[in-house]
Write a structure and sequence with these properties.
single chain, 227 residues, alpha/beta, four-stranded parallel beta sheet, 9 strands
Amino acid sequence: MSNRRKAIIDDGMCPDLLVGADFDGYIGIPIIKRPDKIVVPTGITPFSYRHRIDSDTEAIGFYEMDETFSDVLVNPQKYAEEFKGKIVITPDCSLYRDAPYAVSVANTYKNRTIGYVLQEQGAYVIPQVRWGNSLTYTDELFPDKVAFLGLEKRSIYAIGTYGCIQTKDDKEHFKAGLKAMIETLEPEVILVYGSMPKIVFGDFLSTTKFVQYPDWTTRCHGGGSNG
């Protein structure tokens, strides 16, 4: 009988891969360690196009539909050798504002688990930080701000704005989450995949270093970073 995992829900939370890990918060999210040295990538290439990377200074990102990198979510150890020595931004598992809180917790757990596994196997891991509604970036429901669990302070992190700040409501939630992120994690560097409108980022430009990268479509059509 094959031992291949058939679905993310069976044993895809990968508890067997977390032996030796440290955990954070009341709900126990795996911790991704802060790197010894801050390394800012020269670009971000989506997982599906990683074969185009010709430099170890380019980061592999997961700013795509979740199903395009589902195999990484289910079998992260399968990619450990391929990603060893490379810069990898942890999977951008969606935290939708209208999703049940349990889904936000599960996707945060999965993000940190993948990061822990790849970090243990020699990848330079940059955590992707994602929040949903206010329950994920405040302590109004639980004592922990789940969006920031498993992340050590004063490090390098990544966020994505592509498709996330289209409406006025989107911008307000994104800005509120970003404010909470900066206050909680005290970032050294925040990588931004996508645009950086002043209405969202203007109040924070003096608080930390932001490095902006164009989304893949813009990049392929000649757009560049303005970070």
